[in-house]
Structures are given as C-alpha cells and as structure tokens.
Model the fold of this input.
Amino acid sequence: MGNAKQSAYYYQSAWGYDLIAYAGPETGVRDRASYVLQQGKIRLVLTTAMSPDSEISKHVLQHGDGVKVLALWVDDARASFEATTKRGAKAVMEPTVLKDAFGEVVVSAIQTYGETIHKFVERRNYTGSFLPGYVPKKSLFTVKGVGLKHVDHCVGNVELGRMNEWVKFYEEVMGFKLLLTFDDKDISTEYSALMSKVVSNGNGYIKFPINEPAEGKKKSQIEEYIEFYKGAGCQHIAVATDDIIATVTELRNRGVEFLYVPDNYYDEVWDRVGKINEDVNAIRRLNILVDRDDEGYLLQLFTKPVQDRPTVFYEIIQRCGAKSFGKGNFKALFESIEREQDLRGNL
Done:
C-alpha cells in the first residue's frame, strides 16, 4: 500500500480490526513496514515499502492499493508447493523455513492471475503472534469489532477470454472443483455484462469466483477494474457476519460507504425471497440485498471501492443456510455499480 500506517488506522477505527503484530525498521526489517490486523478468523497484512525501487513500490505504482497475496493455511507447505508446481504452477517462493523463539513456520508461494500470488503457510509448529520477524503490537486506542467472522470468498477479475483458463488452473493445479457458473444472461443489464465461474476446495472453506467481461453496449465493471488496476487482480473480499444489520449499522456509523440500491428493489424482493427472520424494515433502511436458494437465504451488501482507484471493495455477507452468491441480486447490484461508474465517467 501507499501508506500502511494510515490504512491500519482506517481498518482499526472504521472496521474494528485489532492490531496484533508489526514488522519494520524497529524490528530489524529494513525494506518495509507491515501491520497485521485481525477480527474473528480474518487476518489482513498491510505493507508499505521503504524505498521507491522496491518490488512493493513498483506494485503500488502499477496497481494502487490492492491485494498482492491470498494466503492459504496448509498442513504441509512443501507438499503443497511441490504438488502445484509439478502440475504447472509458476514458482514464486521455494519452501522457506522462518524461525524465532516461538517456533517455525514454513512458507512457499505460486503465481496466479495477474500479479496475485498464493502463499502456502504451514504454522503447526509456531506459537507466536503472527510470523517470525513480527513482534506483538496492540492498537493505541480502544477498538470495537463490528462482528466480522471469516472470509467467505475472494473474487478475481481476469481479462476477456481468460476466465476458463484460470478456472482450469484451479481445477488442475490446485485440485479445486467447479461449484457454480453464471453467464451474461444471469449477470447483465441494458449496458454491460460479465461471466463468472466459482471454484472451491474440497471442504468448501475456500471459494474463488473468477469473473471476465462479456460483450455489452458500454464498459463493464470488470473492464473498468482491469483498466484502473492495470491488469487482472482481486476485485473484492467477502467477509461473513452472523448479524448483518448490526454490522452494517456500525460500519455506516463509522463512515464506510456502500453502494446504493433504489427503494423499488424492495417492492418485489419479498415475493421472490419469502419470509426471513430479520427485521425487513431495517433491511430496507440499510439498503441490504436479500436472495434465496434451495438451502436457505442470504443477506449481502457491497462497499464502494476503499481506495481512490475504482478497484478493490468489500462485501458483507450473512448466510442463513444459502450456499449461493446472490444470483437474484445481480441485476440490482450491476445497476448500482453502473451508477457509480457513470459518476466517475467510466461507463
């Protein structure tokens, strides 16, 4: 990031993440400063370079603030690296053992879409605050969480014609399974469309939708992202809550901006979704989207981009049995995004 120190303050004050660890010049790391933030099972590592010729600086210059690493907790980082590189993955980091007084962590990494990488992290023999090289660090003010539990899914945007290539990568290299497919009939408006396929690991804990643009009259949100991110990358991170009304109320009170959904969305949604347990008046007031599948319903809401480039944003999601991704909301969501694109002059 351009300024990890200030971003860490934003994620503490607005999003309720606790600062738990730090690495930087004060800890003997000369080339960067990293802040580790945690809420529930979610961990964010925000990093800034100390010099303009750093790979981190080059990444920020090219992409702006974005997601470089999607780290995966594995039982054996060596085996994960060997299996994926044998199946064709490009190696980024050979298995490396990091040690300190609290034990050791094994880390390896492979390349995925754009400049995004997956790190395999094996931490069964480690009891420290985060990783060797980091020291425990606490927030300097009282941080109040907003009820975030874990990462539900991470969405990747790729260039036109490359979605199936990356789905194949996750299937053949990572051993994931194709979970869902959405075409331009599912996700479109009068002006733009996208295609999406969702891949998931064996136990279903890791879900990666992969999007590509589809033909439309105007520029799609995927094309806008790729134009401003300067290539493929992680579009949004969906974070789960058990009480979306409380979570979104608190986030709005702290200044987090969300996409606007017109009030007439709620004129028809209850006929489609049916009865839910939450207060429907609060759902409407907070602009929360609702959808249902064969196994239950879900509630979701999307932030505006959290940096000035129209790239990375967050989704807040509460699943009440539903395993899907809000297909019934795609049109309303797309129209909302298009309104924002139009305001930016990018539609």
